[in-house]
Write a structure and sequence with these properties.
This protein is mainly alpha-helical and 201 residues long. The protein has one domain. It is built from nine helices and six strands, in the order αβααββαββααααβα. The strands form three sheets. A two-stranded antiparallel sheet has the order 1-6. Strands 2-3 form a two-stranded antiparallel ribbon. Strands 4-5 form a two-stranded antiparallel sheet. Strand 2 and strand 3 form a beta hairpin. Helix 1 packs antiparallel against helix 7, helix 2 packs across helix 9 and helix 3 crosses helix 9. The longest helix is centred in the first third of the chain and has 25 residues.
Length: 201
């Protein structure tokens, strides 16, 4: 994993954040305060490439070994290990690694999918529809009238184009994080071995 690839995925994250912020400002569409319901879904997926910035950060801060231990103890699909649920309010919570979250987490509820006719449609979340229906309908109408918004498919293609070997296949988010942590750890081990003159072949 070279620095150029890492810079490209971070730049893509910056682009997504800029585009979703502009879309939110133009439409008034937001998440309900404190909501973390989407993070509780065990079917959230990511590519290994998307989890590499987080993996590097966890190795940098010395937290990687603890995460790997917890990830290894998961026996079935589970909600993201980085999610911290609110102990008082069901459905509320927060991401403990927010700056490093993958594309789905950045796009969800503020991006489009293409319908059967190939036109973009807002993929609003159920809690938005329940709590701010007027803003949801307004955003849908704005998109139908030509307003620009990030598109899930286009972003997925952008990730795959950065590094097809790591950016194409999607896995449950915990599995993707585990693979990214293992990969960063192995690369660090190999680099250290080379610096020490060890045989790493």
């Amino acid at each position: 994993m070279n620095s150029e690839v890492m810079a490209q995925i971070v730049a893509l994250y910056d682009r997504i954040d800029t585009e979703t912020a502009a879309f939110q400002a133009a439409t008034g569409l937001n998440c309900p305060p404190g909501c973390g319901k989407c993070c509780e879904n065990p079917e959230v997926e990511a590519t290994v490439l998307e989890m590499m910035p987080l993996a590097l950060e966890l190795w940098r801060t010395g937290e990687a070994a603890g995460y790997l231990e917890r990830l290894s103890s998961l026996n079935s699909p589970a909600s993201c290990l980085c999610y911290r649920s609110d102990p008082v309010v069901p459905g509320n919570g927060r991401c403990s690694v927010y700056p490093w979250r993958p594309t789905l987490c950045r796009l969800f509820a503020f991006a489009t999918v293409k319908n059967k006719l190939g036109n973009p449609e807002l993929a609003a979340c159920i809690r938005q529809k329940q709590t701010i229906p007027d803003q949801v309908e307004g955003a849908k109408m704005a998109i139908a009238s030509g307003m620009s918004a990030p598109n899930f498919g286009e972003i997925a293609d952008a990730v795959a184009n950065i590094d097809p070997s790591l950016g194409s296949d999607r896995f449950p988010i915990n599995h993707a994080l585990k693979q990214a942590l293992q990969r960063v750890g192995l690369l660090a081990h190999l680099t250290l071995g080379e610096q020490n003159g060890d045989c790493v072949a």
